[in-house]
Amino acid sequence: MKNFADLGLEPKVLRAITELGFEEATPIQAQSIPIAMTGRDLIGQAQTGTGKTAAFGIPLINKISKDTDKIVALVMTPTRELAIQVAEEIGKLTRFKGIGSLPIYGGQDIGRQIRALKKKPQIIIGTPGRLLDHINRKTIRLDDVETVILDEADEMLDMGFMDDIQSILKLVPENRQTMLFSATMPPNIQRLAQQFLKDPEHVSVVPKQVSAPLIDQAYIEVPERQKFEALCRLIDMESPELAIVFGRTKRRVDELSEALQKRGYSADGLHGDLSQNQRDTVMRKFRDGSIDVLVATDVAARGLDVSGVTHVVNFDLPQDPESYVHRIGRTGRAGKEGTAWSFVTPREIDHLHLIERVTRHRIARKPLPTLAEAIEGKQRIIAERLLETVDKGELNEYKGLAIQLLEQYDSVQLLSAAMKMLTGEKRDSDIQLTPEEPIRVKRRYNSGKPDLRNGRRPSGNYGGFRSNNGGRGGYNRDRDNRGGYNRSGGRNDSYRDGDRKPRTSGSDGRRSSKRDESYNS
Ligand code: ADP
Ligand code: MG
Where is it localised (predicted)? Predict the structure, then answer.
């Protein structure tokens, strides 16, 4: 049953869904909504971008009575950005029904949240840390909560929220409906579900291939020092409408976006060290097309929901296959085509094969674009831009001089010179980035029989987001940044929440169990 109209929803909810432009239910929605509507507990597993928010949001909103002024529903999300994103979608779905909802997250002034709570929202969407804060201050009471949703549960546990979630769930009346949604189902999620869900129905939409088939995947073998040149050629050749280029570290992102700008590309960088204001500015520019290359770390790009990304480039190969899947999933969204390119240094070929095995997808090897291909690509774009300008008209002011010039010079010469100018000379040609160490795969992973299946963390560098640049990886450090958050208005892009506990030891274990899951699924 794919048609929303067949689900027996209230007309007001159905109307909101129509307004959102959803034509039919996604598989996870089609499977989850009828079960959720019976009041049963539910575990839903599906990849990122499959519509899990509406999968719980629709039955939730359908169920809530408009007349109550109590908090009757609690949604927990891992990050402030996801809290905002979910709250936005819930807000749209409640439009005609008139139910209040409020996102609650760390980093925002708590006084402001307390004032907003006085408006008696029925649905709270919050990050665990800040929720506990409010519970302790008695500004949020869970006594009347009838529905609890754990959204992106795997991410929440990855971020060390297990204790907080447990404390919160113990405060919600037992006679409730609990739904847990997650992209992966590592053992710690299963344990959490066992502890807090009652006889849950499992719904799982696990694609045969981990990565979306609409995405063209290719790799280019290129030495570390030639990566930048390769990137420029690739961009020139492919002339992406919107591209996300992934770098391994924040330093990498800074250097790379700066280098691209020097070469005349409209590029900018996104990572955890930027203030919220800076991030918002970058994202706005990317969305409205005033930059067309976004350079980002994994963390900064997680959950990023920008439509129309035509290209993803892994400038550096990610540490683990799951990140690879997350990264390339930024393109090819909403059924559109996308292309993912990866730069692989000669020593990282084994790591690439590991990614191929885990994702069960062969990644085609392509040669480095030649200079001629790059130039041709660039010229094609310039020609397109010229023709667009012709189509737009309003050229009268230029025509006088054009006629004069054409009387004196050859038309082909003139047009070529104009195109050369538009193409832009390459400035600052000797750009050198700080090299990144290659990712090395421990020998046993190359055997074709990785012993990751037994759940033990490998001793090698491959495990747990530990990066090569010493100590804690970019993942952790990005996440640690809580600087200057004070949001004004929601965005869809997802950044890590500052509202969380510091990671303690054992995080690697969590990571590796998550990885086991993707090996087994
Ligand atoms: P997930 O939580 O599974 O990662 P989201 O709930 O964030 O996915 O949904 C991803 C995107 O898909 C959102 O922009 C959402 O509005 C959109 N979406 C959800 N359901 C549908 C649908 N049935 N039809 C079209 N778009 C949808
Ligand atoms: Mg989600």
Answer: Cytoplasm
